[in-house]
């Protein structure tokens, strides 16, 4: 039997690559004669860089950049196996996990480091970029990144503003002509499954502001600031994109990249193409995918659902192995042949994280035992 293992990361505990390797080992230990292929997956969020580097035989480049709180951090960008395409993961530069919970506040975070990493890659001669937008701690409309790329943002008195989200309220003038001209020699493919516009009740602030530490009062203020900021940018560039699908992704970084001629596309589709997922699905007799928690929200565009739709097109059975099954998981049976949770008995979240490798191994091994009997029958 040809087994394809293509999970997302189990956020907080296992990367997609680590989860894939554990699941493969479980099959090899239990199901003699099975042929197992792993295709770690991502959807533009955390883990996208690692997934693409593994799949294409690329490499990681270590670099120092400005972190989300303005500190210098050591981060990385990737070079795909084609040796010409750069992968930048927003979560690794200005990501929410890099900000302690007690310090989360969109007024005090910045996307400046993203621009620094882009410029570093440009200076190394690269012009093709894949940007994984998920996991940002910012809500600055990409202002910090644009500032690092050379755009001038000034107060009413003509003074430059600092790089943090709080500065949006003071910007009254924008000089777009100071941007590094090499930026417009580049192509930016934006991996994101977020379709929110920049502003309004479905925009960046109202949808994602709370998880980034914003209070209810701040969220209203942040939305108004993004609206004012976007009007200034659009006046400077002549491009009206604030209502474009995905403009509100990563706190408005989607909006900024649209002004750099970026093309926003489904993160899952982009990654699937780069890792050759569809040919692997066509060869599979059974598919395993997984994620940290599965519930009814899985059916609203999460990665396992995307893979399940591809499996259905090929009439291939697919099993979902998750850290936990939440409210409405019964709806998943319309798309998955079987659904499994790795937890055993009552467990705290900390216990689940600490034992994730062992739990995933044993549940996958149980599934391998079942499939081995199914094949024999």
UniProtKB/TrEMBL annotation:
UniProt-listed Pfam families: Gly_kinase
InterPro entries noted in UniProt: Glyc_kinase_flavodox-like_fold (IPR018193), Glycerate_kinase (IPR004381), Glycerate_kinase_RE-like (IPR018197), Glycerate_kinase_sf (IPR036129)
Top-level taxon of the source organism: Bacteria
Molecular-function annotations in GO: glycerate kinase activity
One GO BP annotation of this record: organic acid phosphorylation
Keywords: Kinase, Transferase
Family of the protein in this entry: Belongs to the glycerate kinase type-1 family.
Protein name in the entry: Glycerate kinase
Organism listed in the record: Bacillus solimangrovi
